[in-house]
Amino acid sequence: MNPLHGKLGLKIAIGVVLxxxxxxxxPDAHEHYLFFYLFLVFVNIIxxxxxxxxxxxxxxxxxxxxxxxxxGGYTTALLAIHFFEDGGSYFNPLLLAxxxxxxxxxxxxxxxPLLSKLAGDYFALGTLGLGEIVRVVLIKGGRATGGSAGxxxxxxxxxxxMPHYWVGLLLAAACTLVVFLMSRSRLGLxxxxxxxxxxxxxxxxxxxxxxxxxxxxxxxxxxxxAGSLYAFYVFAVSPGGFLNLSWTLYPILMCVxxxxxxxxxxxxxxxxxTAVFSAGNVYLPGVHPIVSGALIILxxxxxxxxxxxxxxxxxxxxxTGQQVEKGSQASGVAPSR
Amino acid sequence: MNKRGALTTIAAAAVVATGLGTxxxxxxxxxxxxxxxxxxxxxxxxxxDGLEQKWSYEQAVADVNAAGGIFIxxxxxxxxxxxxxxxxxxxxxxxxxxxxxxxxxEKVDLILSTHGGDLNMAGALAAEKYKKFYMITTMWPxxxxxxKFKWSxxxxxxxxxxxxxxxxxxxxxxxxxxxxxxxLVVEDSPDGQGFGGVFKSLAxxxxxxxVLDEPWAMGAKDYSAYILKMKxxxxxxxxxxxxxxxxxxxxxxMKEQNFSVPYLHGWKGTWPYExxxxxxxxxxxxxxxxxxxxxxPYPGAKELGERYTKQFNKSSxxxxxxxxxxxxxxxxxxxxxxxxxxxxxxxxxGHEFKGTVQGDVKFDAAGLALITSTANQWWQGKHRLVYxxxxxGWTLKLAPPWNQRK
Lengths: 337, 406
Prior knowledge:
Chain A contains 14 helices and 2 strands, in the order H-H-H-H-H-E-H-H-H-H-E-H-H-H-H-H. By secondary structure, chain A is mostly helical. Chain A has a two-stranded antiparallel sheet with strand order 1-2. Chain B is elongated. In chain B, the strands form 4 sheets. Chain B has a 7-stranded mixed beta sheet, with helices on both faces. In chain B, strands 4-1-5-6-7-15 form a 6-stranded parallel beta sheet, sandwiched between helices. The chains are: A mainly alpha, B alpha/beta. Chains A and B meet through helix 2, helix 9, helix 10 and helix 12 of A and helix 1, strand 4, helix 3, helix 4 and helix 7 of B.
């Protein structure tokens, strides 16, 4: 067993999280763009881990993460302006939790009909449609949702980015821990069984639909939390900003690049891809979508299994090569190149 | 993850950390220039507007620098102005990202706005958070005003003022030329419905009745049903609120069905140059909303329009407003002699700025200045200013039937 998968790995992970938690104590750290970059990374980790649960572990490609992100953000903003007019909404844990819960409930309500009838590409397209429905409902919501302009909260409580940073770090670490524990539990095994072969899983007694819907809801919960956290940062939620498809596509890219269906893949992907997008935006303003698009193609071409699975892939290829060589030696035929 | 993987991750994080900007411990250097930032929509849906805005800001700053810069008391000399842009990708949630970069990486002193209501709301909120002065144009005052922002100022027209323009134009016409049976065709969107509501309330005020008032399906390919209804009801004017693509389709199909109205006034979709390019001479007589005109008699307006036309071979009804937005900020820096956001903001709120390319711009104590929305008639590929009326300026031409046009 690899020692980094055991207690040593856990100690390293705790050390890394603690090290990140101490970053705000560096003088003037919160005045630096790198600090904001880390905050963005944490938000992306949360959303990417959400997608990792439903797609990476359960094999259900969801394209509705932006809808859950938007629902989370709007839940926070609506509760803040209607029930906390006298203040007290800022980083209120109730609002954060409510945002995750509302997104999860929405996923459950939508998930049962979608997942009982659709799978694979059809499920992915269904969830894409879901995102559009939420966007149009929010635009057509009139005064209740602020229409196309959205809703804004008072930025009065904002002093520094530190609370956002710490809450982001805490939520990113918590989501990663949940995925870690899940991947080592019977539940994780059941989800992976559904991913690999849902008929075989059902034959083995796994409640396939409940597993799929549960993973979809857990994914929505995490993404809703991220939406809430981001709403506390921008203080304004709008369909254009929170229902943007990039809140679905970028986390998928992060997962795929890092390694979907792994615990640390989305974390690694979030660090690298957020850096690439931020650097592209800083150094290539206006043309960075070209860079991002090219990067997506390159990732799909050369790292379809993600960074964390590259070694695994190489090992598997080497093993296959050895087996082929052995077989050909046994049969006396030279392997073709 | 194995050891090599962990080391790779740490190395990648280190590369990222060093690659993203200045060190965490960098000390602030003494300013030798005035650094102004602007989040601009350089990519995404609003990129065309964003590039006009970027060009206008660059012209305003180039003109000030050509005059030697701006005197700053603390430096006891004139300092040159440097503009720094950050792409907001036409996405409100990315405006805050752009603002972070401008404030934290570029360390800008002051910020000029991006374009559009929800984007500018995000920008104004970020300015409040970081206490940086944000000089805004293109945002509805009814969205900005109730927020009582302390770190921004706005100059733009209000929705009612913009929607009242056609009624004022009609009043200025001889009674026999005034439209009797106008049709209201507004896109089925929140903005369209919002604008449509204002048109309808103004119609009551001006005692006008619309012969057709139906939401306009966005992105449809066939508008024959609307055109047939307008024809059947004898419409003699059309107020059209929709995207450039939809507006082009509507006018093209009106021509195909030989339906012409003397007065066709569009919002949102008829001002871009692509409208003219797509329709050619069929765009003549059509009116478009606008923010500004090179035909304004204000100092520098004509020259700015000529400069733009020379460079891009087309006209614009926006650049002057963006240019004036920068002019106001630059003049406020000059007045205050400071780069302190509060001092510059105080030099804007409650003050009047004379001689901008947008005319004299007067801000109230809250930092709001209302300007007039323009109406421009397309004529041989140029926007000609119809409203506000200028002495010796362009006179509105009512459109003859299609078969009588040259």
